[in-house]
Amino acid sequence: MKVFINGKIYLERGSFAEAMIVEGNRIIKVGTNTDCLQVLKEAAQESVTDLKGKTVLPGLNDSHLHFLMTAEYLSLLPITDVTAMEELINRCRNYIKKNNLTSDDVLYTEGWNHTTFTDGKRMPDRSDLDQASMDVPIVLVRVDRHVMSLNTAALHYFNITGETLLSTGGEIKKDADGQPTGILTEGAVDLVKAKLPKKSREEKKALLVDSMALANKMGLTSMHTNDAKDEDIDETLSLYKELEDEKRLSVRFYQQIWFNNGRYLVNFFNSDHSFHQGSAWNKIGPIKFFIDGTLGSRTAALRKPYADEPTTWGMLTKSPETLTKEVKQAVANGYQVIIHGIGDLGIETILDAYDEALDGQPNTLRLGINHMQITGPDLIDRVADKEYLTYVQPIFLDDDIPIIRERVGNERADTSYLFKTMQEKGIHQSFSSDAPIVSFNPFYNIQCAVTRNRLDSTESNPYLPEEAMDISAAIDAYTYESAYASFDETEKGRIREGYLADFIVLDKDIFTCAHSEIKTTKVLATFVDGKCVYEAGEWNGE
Asked: Where in this chain does the record put each Amidohydrolase domain (predicted)?
């Protein structure tokens, strides 16, 4: 039995306690110092931690990210901070030289964002990357993971030509002569991903363990991870299962099962897997589909053309009929569904598919939309009416603020990223990072939600400031709402008697500190299942 006293323990909006008791992996009492110490005295035990006024939150829960991809990404050449094409080329050239790469190797990394380039806001193509090397295959993925750039050596290595055909949505960009430019979008990136050199199982497991330690350091105790995909579903799920069996998990996982190619659906539904199969540490979650791309790459599907590129409306990655058929299959097999939808046409297509699949029945499977960015009042009302879930990423404002109005114009921009409106309409809205697209540091996400500004902005011109969420709503979106999205709202997401003992201790009072300082919040200690899985050097607990 462990008693924690003298804390500011967040229970729910406007409600705090000063003490709590943990026994085993559960919180058994929440209340005053006096009440909790009395229980300890009666139990004749002496395990007391003085929180010294520190703020305590439920463990944070990222409701959509790619954790295995993030673990692998953290070992790659860093390029997310690159702000010029020339810098990108030089960084690749230097990496190749430093690591003595040859034509038998592949330089693969992720994170470029051409909208931040100061020497021309265009996507790198083969002519750019050929300047880094004509011999070593180079594959660079855009920050949103929906666009890939290859040099000529990589096009040859992966056998991509002007005649290459695609089985899934996407595009191989071509020049006037019909030859690949080196830019692949959406489903076309699978031509490369399927043939990339694979890490061994033990290497992947080691990366996952290291990344869990980093996640715990940032206050994350649960995640909805989107790694298991198409033909690799069983292989990926088995990594997490082995780590669970080896008692090496320090994060709870809800597995979002990703289908880019619908031909893998039938085999999955005929397998031994079932919805919610597993344990409190690791279980099967929803089926995950895509319907469109991203705003930055102009592949998000819009109902009207892009303001800065009137010749394109973005793209649907599959037909509405195909999406509806696949959603119906998932629902018929008893699975929750989450679908990537950024553009208003993409979101509308998702809602049409959900409505048809449910056929007037309540949304008991908690079907949801991931991203929900470019919206209109009609779409938000439809989500609220049918109680569809939303998974949003306020941190995306950090990259998108400079381009939102440019991409979609003022009218659509004024009805987009409406996190507070969705909250006020009673829509279940959980926070997520979509890492490795951005860092999974939850305090970055929370700051963007309450400031409606870029992380490093020194200007007082937030984007739609009336849509700023208050700190309690932002924390609830990272705790209770993420638990709700996995049907766990009676098990975790709150500090409450009977709930799992997943909680974190902060170095500052996140409820009263300046909003611009939220991003600097440090976690002093992280507890999962009643055990301390991370403690900072300055933590004064046991």
From this structure: 48-534
Say which residues have a Cβ less than 8 Å from residue 360's Cβ, sequence separation at least 6. Answer: none
Q: What are phi and psi of 206, to 5 degrees?
A: -65, -40
Longest alpha-carbon distance in the chain: 83
**Which of these, 65, 61, 66, lies nearest to 484 by C-alpha position?**
61
Element (H, E) at 129: helix 126-129
Beta strands in 120-165 (DSSP E): 138-142, 147-150
Q: pTM for the whole thing?
A: 0.87
| CA–CA gap between residue 470 and residue 487 (Å, rounded) | 25
- State the CATH number of the domain containing residue 427: 3.20.20.140
Would you state the structure tokens that stand for residue 267, as one six-digit string? Answer: 């085999």
Distance CA 385, CA 439 (A): 33
- Residues 399, 432, 109, CA angle at the centre, nearest 5°? 55
Look at residue 325 and tell me if it is in a domain: yes
∠ at Cα 173 (317, 413), nearest 5°? 55
Q: Which helix (H) or strand (E) holds 222?
A: strand 220-225
- Do 120 and 266 belong together in one domain? no
Q: What's the rounded Cα separation, in Å, for the pair 510 and 389?
A: 26
The predicted-structure confidence for 47-63, as pLDDT tens digits, reads as follows 899 999 999 999 999 99
The Cα 525–Cα 91 span in angstroms is 37
Q: Has residue 332 been placed in a domain?
A: yes
Q: Tell me how crowded residue 466 is: count the other CB atoms within 10 A of its CB.
A: 9
Give the list of residues 6+ apart from residue 296 with CB closer than 8 angstroms, or none: 113, 114, 115, 142, 143, 144, 399, 400, 403
| CA–CA distance, 461 with 400 (Å, rounded to integer) | 14
Task: Give CA 125 to chain center in angstroms.
Answer: 27
238: Cβ–Cβ under 8 A, 6 or more apart, which residues? Answer: none
Q: What's the start-to-end Cα distance of the chain, in Å?
A: 13
CA dihedral 295, 296, 298, 302 (to 10 degrees): 10
Structural domain contains residue 61: no
Question: What pLDDT, in 10s, does the model give residues 398-426?
Answer: 999 999 999 999 999 999 999 999 999 99
- Identify which of 399, 504, 413 has the alpha carbon closest to the alpha carbon of residue 81: 399
SS3 state at 229: strand
Q: What token pair was written down for 238? A: 């088995």
Shared-domain flag, residues 449 and 398: yes
Does 176 share its domain with 296?
no
Range of the domain at 313: 201-526
Cα–Cα separations (whole angstroms), residue 408 to 146, 313, 402 = 19, 10, 12
Do both 147 and 244 map to the same domain?
no
Neighbours of 148 (CB within 10 A): 25
Among 488, 468, 469, 467, CA closest to 479? 488
Task: Mark whether 380 and 471 lie in a shared domain.
Answer: yes
Q: Total domain count for the chain?
A: 2
Two tokens, residue 85: 């094409």
Token pair belonging to 343: 């553009």
258, amino acid identity: W
Residues (pLDDT < 50) of the chain are none
Q: Judge if 185 and 246 occupy the same domain.
A: no
